[in-house]
Amino acid sequence: MTTPPKNPAASGKKDQFSSAGFILAAIGSSVGLGNMWKFPYITGQNGGAAFFLLFIVCLIVIGLPVLLAELAIGRAGRGSAATSFVKAGGSKMFGRLGLLQVIAPFLILTFYVIVAGWTLHYAVQSFSGHLFSNPDFKGQFNTFIGGYMPIVWQAIAILITGIVVVKGISGGIEKFNKVLIPGMIILLIVMMIRAVSLPGAGEGVAFFLKPDFSKLTPESALVALGHAFFSLSLGMGILLTYGAYVDKRQPLGTATIAIGAGDLIYAFVAGLIIFPTTASFGIEPDSGPSLVFIALPAAFSAMPFGAFFGGLFFVLLAIAALTSAVSLLEVPVTYLMDRWKWGRTKSVVVISVFVLLIGLPSALSFGIVPGLSAMGSKNFFDWLDFITSNILLPVGGLITTIFAGYFWKGAAEAAGLKSGWFRVWLFMLRYVAPILVLLVLLDTTGILKLK
Questions:
Q1: CATH number, domain 21-444, options 2.40.50.140, 1.10.4160.10, 2.60.120.650, 3.60.15.10
Q2: C-alpha span between 41 and 304 (Å, rounded)
Q3: Distance of CA 40 to the CA centre of its chain
Q4: What angle do CA 354, 107, 86 make, to 5 degrees?
Q5: Against a cut of 0.85, is the pTM above it?
Q6: Among 89, 106, 263, 342, whose CB has the most other CB atoms within 10 angstroms?
């Protein structure tokens, strides 16, 4: 009697997620730095709870319908973010347009692994105690990102990411998320409890939970929509690619709600960590992406065993970043495997090398290279973040909504929705999401300015 092969490819079966593994991997893609690093400071800039409510509306009205469409297209096409449109029944034009959803995650990954490297560095500094030897946490952070060491940590981050992706879907990405996401959630809850119990934390909680609609602007709507796309990993081919590895028996509607809920809960917990901490230590909640690298070390320094818990938290924050990095890397890797028939190892190595090289300008744009740190109102890193988040991702989402809403004859069967919910979903894809996304694009390109 022979033992059946454990490798799916060896048995003729496509490597794919289990039901629970898929949901965890999709949540792992969304609960990265987007909600812990980016969400708190853009919330602080736009008035706290009022912006959070606006974000929820964008998530439900636009995010979830597009998310379901991406999953359905991916599962129906069983290919990469570019080829699935054609394999699902679309024209070659959509295949070419879908290539944008391969380019976008690649560009995002070039600067995303840089911040993942920052978190790894902070974990080491915290465990060693060096992070708390100098109370000037802002100065420490600026000195670090303004040097060459971020390049080393950038390389380490892409190496870890590549090792996971090389092992495949079930053996790499799924196992990575199954082990690390539950542990991360537990420690985030512990950190939330610790944050809200800090002296003066009530002011931060009130800022986060008490809406001030007078501070909302049309720009706030643009930022909320952009972050809904970014935090759910929409328009960048991730969920479309993951959908290609989902079992056909997996209810996509249920998975969509679970992924959206996971993203929202993570954002909420992130707010209840950051804002009470900033209030307790007198830090402005709109001080930029460095917020998490300044506020949290201050909190850890004031608590018993702060070096240990701080190190553990930054390890888990790095894990959150790396789960997203893994999903970003999988998109271009799947494209090379699907389009050019390359092996997984070769695809991972080639993409990883290019990510590292093209990411160098972003890593060097915090003061060490003046030409990269002063490019108008932003540095190179911030420009790349702005272009991908506010232009490429909405364009990718627009392509998905137009295809699923108007051109895809198999949408009803692929989505697996009952007739009533299908009509609602189709209405959102045809008449609501495209219009709002188009308004964002017109505003970001300067063709139309929202007043």
A1: 1.10.4160.10
A2: 27
A3: 14
A4: 100
A5: yes
A6: 263
